[in-house]
């Protein structure tokens, strides 16, 4: 394979996306005690793209996110952010500083701080709760917080303690906290789990609005939600990409139909045939 990644990571440079790709995951393998969680996985995320990643329980979605964010090191393969930043040479904090933000399923906001203060804490350069809250914000920082509050739809709630927010609002706040560090790539794990239909709809609008300026990868089991936001969907199965394309193409893909409705439904692991994906190909 031609090595088109000729420079190593150098400080805080922007990812080189001149070929329109922000994330290159190539031939990645991860094994846990001999079990292949990722199996020669290849994935490319376009600059500014909103991509949905779906797959049954155990398909490898979380492991893939862990590899991208430096939590898990692959046995073999390469992972680059833009053309030049080799993520396998960086630790988790350096990867976050390079511009990759991750939001886990469960919101982790500071319940006793206000919505505004939660975002303030996350602004680049603020190192600790103590120094952040006693650090006087300059006009630019205040404007940025207000801008984020508008993006996440929590302007009216900005002086509420986060504990007063609904589950959905906490998820948006956490997305706002991620935005404060100006990530180029956002990895979002099951954003609408536990949300009301109205919150789900607003989350779809929020994530869609972030694409363009940011690249967004959403892992989600809610197929109606995926259908509402995704232009391109990647289906993972047993640690590899099974299919990729529009939702319509995925639903009609013979491999997807065979795996999720057909003979290859792994009887020894019943959870690998989840109803959500089955719903997808049936609908
Ligand atoms: N630290 C670990 N040690 C051993 N096995 C692991 C470890 N992490 C993941 N696995 C296994 O690797 C496989 C892939 O797991 P992973 O969590 O990536 O799947 P997933 O697609 O995120 O599933 P889910 O939708 O349930 O979150 C599973 O069979 C899981 O049991």
Automatic annotation (TrEMBL):
<protein>
    <submittedName>
        <fullName>ABC transporter ATP-binding protein</fullName>
    </submittedName>
</protein>
<dbReference type="GO" id="GO:0005886">
    <property type="term" value="C:plasma membrane"/>
</dbReference>
<feature type="domain" description="ABC transporter">
    <location>
        <begin position="23"/>
        <end position="263"/>
    </location>
</feature>
<dbReference type="GO" id="GO:0005524">
    <property type="term" value="F:ATP binding"/>
</dbReference>
<dbReference type="InterPro" id="IPR017781">
    <property type="entry name" value="ABC_transptr_urea_ATP-bd_UrtD"/>
</dbReference>
<keyword id="KW-0813">Transport</keyword>
<dbReference type="Pfam" id="PF12399">
    <property type="entry name" value="BCA_ABC_TP_C"/>
</dbReference>
<dbReference type="Pfam" id="PF00005">
    <property type="entry name" value="ABC_tran"/>
</dbReference>
<dbReference type="InterPro" id="IPR051120">
    <property type="entry name" value="ABC_AA/LPS_Transport"/>
</dbReference>
<dbReference type="GO" id="GO:0016887">
    <property type="term" value="F:ATP hydrolysis activity"/>
</dbReference>
<keyword id="KW-0547">Nucleotide-binding</keyword>
<dbReference type="InterPro" id="IPR032823">
    <property type="entry name" value="BCA_ABC_TP_C"/>
</dbReference>
<dbReference type="InterPro" id="IPR003439">
    <property type="entry name" value="ABC_transporter-like_ATP-bd"/>
</dbReference>
<keyword id="KW-0067">ATP-binding</keyword>
<dbReference type="InterPro" id="IPR027417">
    <property type="entry name" value="P-loop_NTPase"/>
</dbReference>
């Amino acid at each position: 394979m031609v090595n088109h990644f000729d420079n190593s990571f150098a400080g805080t440079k922007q990812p080189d996306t001149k070929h329109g790709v922000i994330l290159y995951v190539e031939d990645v393998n991860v094994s846990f005690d001999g079990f292949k969680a990722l199996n020669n996985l290849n994935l490319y995320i376009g600059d500014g793209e909103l991509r949905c990643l779906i797959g049954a329980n155990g398909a490898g979605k979380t492991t893939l996110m862990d590899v991208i964010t430096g939590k898990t090191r692959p046995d073999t393969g390469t992972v680059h952010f833009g053309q030049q930043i080799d993520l396998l040479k960086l630790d988790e904090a350096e990867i976050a500083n390079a511009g990759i933000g991750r939001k886990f399923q469960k919101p982790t906001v500071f319940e006793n701080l206000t919505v505004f203060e939660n975002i303030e804490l996350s602004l680049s350069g603020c190192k600790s709760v103590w120094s952040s809250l006693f650090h006087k914000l300059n006009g630019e920082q205040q404007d940025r917080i207000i801008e984020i509050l508008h993006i996440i739809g929590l302007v009216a709630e900005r002086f509420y303690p986060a504990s007063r927010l609904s589950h959905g609002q906490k998820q948006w706040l956490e997305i706002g906290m991620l935005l404060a560090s100006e990530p180029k790539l956002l990895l979002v794990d099951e954003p609408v789990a536990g949300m009301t239909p109205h919150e789900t709809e607003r989350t779809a609008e929020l994530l869609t609005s972030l694409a363009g300026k940011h690249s967004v990868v959403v892992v989600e089991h809610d197929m109606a939600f995926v259908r509402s936001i995704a232009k391109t969907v990647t289906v993972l199965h047993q640690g590899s990409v099974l299919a990729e394309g529009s939702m319509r193409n995925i639903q009609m893909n013979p491999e997807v139909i065979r795996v999720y409705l057909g003979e290859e439904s792994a009887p020894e692991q019943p959870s690998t045939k989840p109803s959500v994906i089955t719903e997808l190909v049936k609908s």
